[in-house]
Amino acid sequence: MEEKKNLSSISSSGMMMLTCMVISWIFIHRWNQRSKKGPKTWPLVGAAIEQLMNYDRMHDWLVDYLSELKTVVVPMPSTTYTYIADPVNVEHVLKNNFANYPKGEVYHSYMEVLLGDGIFNVDGDLWRKQRKTASFEFASKNLRDFSTIVFREYALKLSGILCQASVSVQQIDMQELLMRMTLDSICKVGFGVEIGTLAPQLPDNRFAQAFDTANIVVTLRFIDPLWRIKRFLNVGSEALLDKSIKIIDDFTYKMIRKRKLEIEEAKESRKNDKQIKHDILSRFIELGENPESKLTEKSLRDVVLNFVIAGRDTTATTLSWSIYLIMTHPHVADKLFSELKALEEDRAKEEKISLLPYDPEDPKSFNERVAQFAGLLTYDSLGRLSYLHAAITETLRLYPAVPQDPKGILEDDILPDGTKVKAGGMVTYVPYSMGRMEYNWGPDAASFKPERWLKEGFFQNASPFKFTAFQAGPRICLGKDSAYLQMKMTLAILCRFFDFTLVPMHPVKYRMMTILSMAHGLKLKVARRS
Ligand code: HEM
Q1: 187 in contact with ligand 1, CB cutoff 6 A
Q2: Where does heme bind (predicted)?
Q3: What is the per-residue pLDDT across 157-179, written as a single tens digit (0 to 9) for each?
Q4: With CB atoms 3.0 to 4.6 Å apart as the test, which of 177, 277, 486, 496 could cross-link to 340 if both were Cys?
């Protein structure tokens, strides 16, 4: 009995000692960081708790730290994230020492389920080959001309839906409509397939919903240490991901089969090769006919999904933020309207046509007039809209569609500002923070001012290492010109013919996913204007 008592008192004093040691360890760990700038860490878990607690506002959490520090180091349980906002560091990572900062294994393993081995998710030869094939396509004048027609046609469809909503005094979710428009156009321009999600009755869009869910869940993996266990057990977010991927794959493989069949039929009917319309997908399908290319059905699926994420989400979210910012800055809306009216008159003179008189109260004459205006918008005439170009660029400075972009680290390195980074960690350049830093843009960095991009009325670009919305260096966005073309076509039509107001109390804030979309959409009321 006595022996038992002694044993239990030894074990409880042992426990106490252990607890004291752990508390001292935590205390010393925290004490050593008392003057540290940047997120403070805890033993073992690093800064994961603080990052998790700020997950929904992570971009602004980083803004707070980066405005003091330019480089923020965030240790996590299994790796270290280094966030950079100084253009000198960004140039080092994206260009000068490009080979040391690939997408990397970690990023690849997190995103593989959605992006597979597509251009966004690979390095080395696999990336180079896809970049070469896609660059070829993007450089073609055929694609540019075809895109102009498609973008105009779909912007007009959207305008028709807005006109109808204004007649029936219905509120709309602009972001949702824009996502439909950009999905339809990337499928048409990129894969030669008409999917019609922007039809007036707005058909059910299971693919888009599944795609959004998958995007949210894979982004969560970057800060969820339990995701591999969840995937193994197929529970929670990972079970949802699994379901979404099945829907996505089903849609994508059907589209590929359809396109292959069309190409076969075109060949059989002996149309010469020039008559088979070239798009990104058919270029890859043709490549796949050569067995040495090692392109499989799965590779084509990856091509499609990478271009959907590239072409649909980025453009639609930028358009949504642009409309929101223009609408909430009336002096910008007025200047833009004047620029559009001036272009309309100049173009009518050039084409020697008279502009149709119309009554905004009469939808028929209104729609005819919109269509006439759209017909005047060509690739060249859109190029003259400097204020519109500046307004879109200013939107991307404050609300970049890709708000942060992580890179792997192959070998230990020292960034130009002296920060040491270790092999196996990650360096992330942060367009969202970079656009809001006074040390990058001056004291008015937080204000929406398209004028900052204009010199004597003409658009002036900034260094791509400071304005990083399209990345920079060898992996700079391939679709930038195409995206501007679509955004300018759409905004020219919408801002010339409609007034927008936010539905009262509608919350406008971002959602945490790889793309900076609006968490609750953009609920608006629409009115036709003369
Ligand atoms: C506002 C619109 C857009 C923005 C802000 C944007 C931004 C970006 C960014 C930040 C990247 C780098 C991603 C990374 O490697 O981590 C990127 C890459 C890319 N973008 Fe865009 N993008 C836009 C529209 C488009 C469009 C419309 C297309 C094509 C239809 C496109 C095609 C691509 C491709 C193919 C890459 C991969 C380049 C490579 O890895 O070599 N983008 N884009």
Answers
A1: no
A2: 477
A3: 999 999 999 999 999 999 999 99
A4: 496
